[in-house]
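Protein entry
_____________
===
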Amino acid sequence: MALSRSLRRTSPITLILATILAIGFIFFLWDPSSSSIPATAHQRQEDAAAHPLSPPTKPFPKKQPQRADGHQAPPPVVHYHMNDLTTSDTSAERGERVLILTPMMNFYQGYWENLMKLQYPHEFISLGFILPKTSEGNAATVALQEAVAKTQSGPVDDRFASVTILRQDFDPPLQSQDEKERHKIENQKARREAMGRARNSLLFTTLGPSTSWVLWLDADIVETPTTLIEDLTRHDKPVLVPNCYQRFLNPETNEMDVRPYDYNSWMESDVGLELASNMGPDEILLEGYAELATYRSLLAWMASTDGIEYDPNRVVELDGVGGTALMVKADVHRDGAMFPAFPFYHMVETEGFAKMAKRLGYTCWGLPDYFVYHYNE
């Protein structure tokens, strides 16, 4: 059979190349990996950190470049344009990165499930944890790693930009983490100084140049609104804390009820100032103890629990803040506000942080009618 004029004039090389292209096109169409990667996965790959030394605020690249001789290439010089970094009341729309930091003694499944429900785009959230090297800390680390591995290998939209897990390089001052033991007044100074050290280690290790906001979220916070990040950043405050309550079974009514839990968010009083003025340099004031009645105005008691004047957007100025759920503009930390592990104007840890922030010219705020809930031990 005679070939047509067009085929007789076609080069065999052209036919071979056309066949290869056709086979490649068919393979691309039927390759399951090409259709299973959603656009968000590709965007995350494009948004990966520039090199392995990049601060953990972006996804890390899985493969690092190598030189022609097979050795690992040195990390490049990276320029960070921090003047372009924003902290606004439309954080999600602007893609502002949030760093959620959690000092963890025990792993609560409710904490992780609540974290997973946050509606803020997870691709803009980095997580950081610090755990002690104790038997409880070891068990919590194993449980945390399992939860992280499951999430980071699951649906792309559920994955966080990066996760950092640190272990404390110092022994905790208390061997028992029983709630009653933790809250004894004689244990507070050593305990909270150690907590300050842990928070600072976590902060200084994980805060990167792409971070706009830092959300301190305690490991025993098991219930928050799913819009927690959007709700807090919408106020555009340098330091903002919601009211921390706890659900419990009321023995008097035999029904579920709520009660205040965190008493570390307050407005200063003349009595508190007078007590501090008569203290030695290494003494600290504590809130919520009858032995040190400061008569401060506590955020816990400002809530409109009767529902008559309830307003979740109502804000009040504070002099002290707790750390159960604390939203901070990253620039406040960059300017030097940390968690003093030593008496700072007779305050330590989160209350000392509030004092530092105020000394740097920032104002601390609280939301009396916006609630997060603490695990009930």
User: Anything to note?
Assistant: The two ends are 89 Å apart (CA to CA). The longest strand covers residues 239-250. DSSP finds 13 helices and twelve strands in the chain.
